[in-house]
Design a protein that fits this description.
Layout (H helix, E strand, L loop, with lengths): L6 E4 L2 E4 H7 L14 E7 L5 E5 L1
Antiparallel strand pairs: 1-2, 3-4
Length: 55
């Protein structure tokens, strides 16, 4: 099956087949999510547990 002209639709817009071809070689992705992929808010639960918000 040919991927020519193909794209992947995301909430940020289409991702081209060229970008997807480059991403196929990625085997591991390590991210720090505190404040990077989140709003950085930490909530305390009723029993003192730490809860983090992600969006």
């Amino acid at each position: 099956m040919s991927k020519a002209g193909a794209s992947l639709a995301t909430c940020y817009g289409p991702v081209s087949a060229d970008v997807m071809a480059k991403a196929e070689n990625i085997r591991l992705l390590i991210l720090d999510v505190d404040g990077v992929l989140s709003d950085g808010l930490i909530y305390m639960g009723n029993n003192g547990e730490e809860l983090k918000a992600f969006n």
